[in-house]
Amino acid sequence: MDAEEDKTHAGSVIPRTGRRVAFDYLRATAIVLVVYHHAIIPYTTFAYLNPLNPVQTISPVVNGERWSGFDTFAWFNDIFLMSLLFLVSGLFVWKSLTRKGAAKYLSARVTRLGIPFLVGVLLLVAPTYYPAQLQISQGFGGDIGFVQFYLELFRVGFGTAGPLWFVWVLLAFNGLFVAAYKLLPIPARPDGTLVTSALARPVLFFATLLAISAAAYGMMVIMFGPLTWIGVGPFKVQASRSLHYLVYFLAGVAVGAYGIDRSVFRADGPLATYWWAWLSAAVVAFLVAVRVTDIASSSPFIGGTMFTICCVTIGAAFIATFLRFANRRRVVLDSLSDNSFGIYIVHYLIAAWLQYFLLGPEVSPFVKASLAFVGTLVLSWAVTAALRRIPAVARVI
């Protein structure tokens, strides 16, 4: 989830780390949007609690007052955020893998991703979802203490990892690619006219990504439906999007192997130059998707088509905009970037309890969501920064 060092473009790096400004800030912004997404979910009209199983809910807390406008914001984030994070996470895989070798690379990935996932599941899942149990107890009766709640979750294998599902899936994708790297004759750089053209030309690249991801998504939707999660215990993933996410991750790997500075993601390339066109395409695609929501919900083909089109256009718009404008370091944004992975790990716990304490005040859902978002971001940022003062922790998050 972190960017590897890359000093090949002087205009896009900071001397102390060599990392690219655009992708550092893009990743950090995506995680801020993840925080916002989880901050507003209790105030959407589709939020619900499951009295039979508190971890099988849309959110650990559900507010009584809702605002339908949050439905649109939540849907917007859901369409592209995780796909974009998988793509960005793949960009520096090839360089790191070829520099370190398979064994060292995979060991580093296990440390960076596996340890936070394990610690998060064992220590964060239960306290994150305990507010759901408290709400269920208040509404349906039954008083279950936290220790009993934790032991029951432990006994059944937790059943969810919350947002940490992204971490284990990313580790699995890394492991799959390392296995392919060792077993298959993967060239040092993608070659061939078609591949080279796709990786160097934005329209062809994103059209190819759209076609492949649409095929992957469509196949899985037919098999599992759009909302089914599959897996065991905390190792679960949304079935319909599993191959779709893999396609985005591998697209990032391919760009990194080809060379970012000669690819569609080069800072002075047409993607950055025509950022406004990609942004316009994203806006149009999303507005069309909103307009045909009712039709799309009853037609897997139309729904899947709009999802994959919006995903690729919104993701392209974000990348293009950051390539164009994120070219200077800022102290606050550097801090946000440095702490973004830790923010992702701890934010859901903080959000759940803030939202729980906000159940009492009789204020609008917009005010509550705003307080939950700002409070979650600030506290997650502060907690992560404090934890990273411990050298062993800093090496992981």
Question: How would you characterize the overall build of this protein?
Answer:
With 397 residues, this protein is mainly α. The chain is built from 17 helices and two strands. The chain has helices at 21-40, 69-90, 93-100, 102-123, 125-140, 146-155, 165-183, 193-200, 202-224, 239-258, 270-273, 275-291, 293-298, 300-325, 331-357, 365-387, 391-394; strands at 229-232, 235-238. Strands 1-2 form a two-stranded antiparallel sheet. β1 (229-232) and β2 (235-238) form a beta hairpin. α2 crosses α10 (239-258). The longest helix has 27 residues, at 331-357. It starts with 20 loop residues before the first helix and ends with a helix.
Question: Keywords for this structure?
Answer:
mainly alpha, 397 residues, 17 helices, two-stranded antiparallel ribbon, 69% helix, 2 strands
Sheet/helix structural class: mainly alpha
Mind describing the biggest β-sheet? 2 strands, antiparallel
Supply Rg.
Answer: 21 Å
Total strands: the figure is 2
Number of helical runs? Answer: 17
Shape: globular
Strand residues, percent: under 5%
Question: What is the rounded distance between the termini?
Answer: 10 Å
Low-confidence runs? 4-18
Estimated helix fraction:
55-70%
Mean pLDDT over all positions: 90
SSE series: HHHHHHHHHEEHHHHHHHH
List the strand order in the largest sheet. 1-2
